[in-house]
Amino acid sequence: MGFELEKLYSRRKDIHEKFGGQQQGGISTPANLPYIFLFTSEAGEQHGYHDGYDENGLFIYTGEGQVGPMKFLRGNRAVRDHVKDGKELLLFSSTKKSTINRFKGTFVCAGWRHRIGPDRNGNPRELIQFHLTPSSALAAHLQDEPSEIVVPENIALDEMRKRAYAAIENKVSTTPVISQKNIYKRSEEVKAYVLARAQGICESCGKAAPFLNKDGKSYLEAHHIRQLSDDGLDIPSWMAAICPNCHREIHHGQDGATKNQTLLAQISSFEKSLVY
């Protein structure tokens, strides 16, 4: 994407002219692109809500709709289902100059809940508040030693795959605290499946894991394929279990981008084959 954290961007020139999407409102969903642009501003207080970080480090983001109860249509549905749909959330905050926004980073919807608040006309209605966690926080969690992720030995791989994809669903209202717990559990479910899928063989170079970890398991590292960072979405078709050497080469090697694209094609093809 090329957006830099805390840098200022023109919504029209830097975002919509390049990527498309709705130029009005807080949620913009460009067609045929894996991105959703979120815009937050103090103007929301006029409609009975305030966006911002809570004590758990989650960014509370209020959905769209100024009159009547908010429903999971259009932008609201897109935010709730962005992981399942393979869309990344990019958050921008307004500045004193209305056309200029500050990039706050990429986020993942950890959960949501309904709250009561006034609409534009002052009438009480249901609001949708999304609980967004920075992708960097999930990336840090993903870097835990694989030995800390429990890979069940008594569960079939197909069942683990079903659990991983089921974990991506995000259709139950929860409190922010539960949302935060669920997002890490979701990450662990996907990672456990990906590590089990590899069966001790690097999914990039095809070689056996270079050593056993402290639990006697083959040591492989979970890698988000969609980006050359590890801040991607926890989706089985966009993650791979690879050896440390391949992992370092993808991130820092001269041919890392090519190697990563090859890996993406292999994993995507494999996951699609399981559907049929």
TrEMBL record:
<dbReference type="InterPro" id="IPR003615">
    <property type="entry name" value="HNH_nuc"/>
</dbReference>
<feature type="domain" description="HNH nuclease">
    <location>
        <begin position="189"/>
        <end position="248"/>
    </location>
</feature>
<keyword id="KW-0378">Hydrolase</keyword>
<keyword id="KW-0540">Nuclease</keyword>
<dbReference type="InterPro" id="IPR058712">
    <property type="entry name" value="SRA_ScoMcrA"/>
</dbReference>
<dbReference type="GO" id="GO:0004519">
    <property type="term" value="F:endonuclease activity"/>
</dbReference>
<keyword id="KW-0255">Endonuclease</keyword>
<dbReference type="Pfam" id="PF26348">
    <property type="entry name" value="SRA_ScoMcrA"/>
</dbReference>
<dbReference type="Pfam" id="PF01844">
    <property type="entry name" value="HNH"/>
</dbReference>
<protein>
    <submittedName>
        <fullName>HNH endonuclease family protein</fullName>
    </submittedName>
</protein>
<dbReference type="InterPro" id="IPR002711">
    <property type="entry name" value="HNH"/>
</dbReference>
